[in-house]
Every structure is written in C-alpha cells, then in structure tokens.
Write a structure and sequence with these properties.
- With about 80 residues, the protein is an alpha+beta fold.
- The chain has two helices and three strands, in the order E-E-E-H-H.
- The radius of gyration is 13 Å and the shape is globular.
- It starts with a strand and ends with a helix.
C-alpha cells in the first residue's frame, strides 16, 4: 500500500509519499513529486496491480482525506498519467 498526502499551507505546499517497502519521501516542489510518483507507479504497476483508465491516467483511489476542495484540486492538478 502506498500513502501520500498534500499539506497545503499559505505560500507552501508539502507533498509526502510513503510505501512501507521503500520509506518516506517529502517534496516541496510539485513537479519533482509528480515525476517521482509517475516513476514509482510505472515501476510498480504489476507488483501493486495498478491500472489505468481509458484515457491512460492511473486510477488511484482516495481512501481518506480532509474534505477540502483545495486538496482535492491539488491531486487533480498533478495530472498523473
């Protein structure tokens, strides 16, 4: 299982990624986080049975989140495909 979070504070957004097999990674740069996540998903598609939708975007499920439209938009803006 992988877990990631987006902590949106004034003037700064922090992205955190966790996988028990590789550890915790923190990013304060959206593009670096996006590239890391894309690389991770490509490398682990088979091991984690990660699938894509008809548009070629990775299908990620949100298990829990703060009901915050800004955080949801940050996830959408990552444009993971």
């Amino acid at each position: 299982m992988m877990i990631f979070s987006i902590d949106n504070k004034p003037q700064k957004i922090n992205y955190t990624f966790f996988d028990s097999n590789i550890g915790v990674f923190n990013f304060d740069n959206k593009e670096k986080f996006r590239l890391f996540l894309l690389s991770y998903l490509k490398e682990n598609e088979q091991a984690y049975n990660i699938t894509k939708n008809e548009n070629g975007n990775y299908k990620l499920m949100i298990a829990a989140y703060k009901d915050n439209d800004d955080i949801k938009q940050q996830l959408i803006d990552l444009d993971i495909k």
